[in-house]
Amino acid sequence: MQQQPNNKNSQDLAGKTAVVTGGNVGLGFQSTLELAQRGARVVIACRSAEKGEAAMARVRQQVSSASLEVLPLDLTERDSIHRFAQSFTAKHQRLDILLSNAGVVNLKELERTKEGWEMHMATNHLGHFLLTGLLFETLVATPDARVVTVSSGAYKAAKMNFDDLHWEKRPYARVGSYAESKLANLLFMFALQRRFDAAGSSTKSMSAHPGLAATERQQSIGIGGWLSRMMARPVEFGARPQMMAATDTSLPACSFLGPRFGIWGNPSPIKLSGLAVDEGVQEKLWAVSEELTGFQYPQTEKAA
């Protein structure tokens, strides 16, 4: 018998603004719905404005008073990320929750962006790195804001191959490239918190993973799809760790939330280990990410 999701709205989010990348489908849509139910104004950030509008209509079928908008965002294109940030900051003076949810999983063939970046690293890490940087000053200026970077337990199987970050020398490995991007998410979480601390901000950098959730992407990828169809929890459960990371005010910075038993269980803090907690690796990835994206975060005394 499956557990029932906890639908208790533990925090009123009225007056708060959230951005959900990939907020039109899967875990992102579920998060958009729950944030709207709690009263937040939610910006659905996705590549297709048409699909974003359809998602917005679906939310309003359940939450007639939902405050929503759609802004186009393609995390694989630097120009698109800059346009999104410019549009957002022109409309909004605060950003309480940046839920970096969008991602690609175990792509069968090696794919690259027009920048030449491998698609997992581009979408899951570099795009969100640039987006967060462009919104950094708004986040810092918003009391008790949150940045939640969605990662995966797959990080444990990864190493950061800085001399071949985009799989130009190695034979492409779908699981390996995905795992590296998920390790990058956690390295980023820690390094980002140091920038918030150095800026004297109350903003917290967090991370979460859904376990095995029955998303459209997971159900469409080979063995992972078979496992999802047989074992995965509904999306309502998969979204719980990232929602907890985004809204539970009792959690310390750099908390990593996931199902208690890896795939199943209530969301709980998970102790990170290995390369994920290596400050030297965290800072090396940060420097490489600034170089690749062509964007340098605002300098603070401690982070400079």
TrEMBL record:
<keyword id="KW-0560">Oxidoreductase</keyword>
<dbReference type="Pfam" id="PF00106">
    <property type="entry name" value="adh_short"/>
</dbReference>
<protein>
    <submittedName>
        <fullName>SDR family NAD(P)-dependent oxidoreductase</fullName>
    </submittedName>
</protein>
<dbReference type="InterPro" id="IPR036291">
    <property type="entry name" value="NAD(P)-bd_dom_sf"/>
</dbReference>
<dbReference type="InterPro" id="IPR002347">
    <property type="entry name" value="SDR_fam"/>
</dbReference>
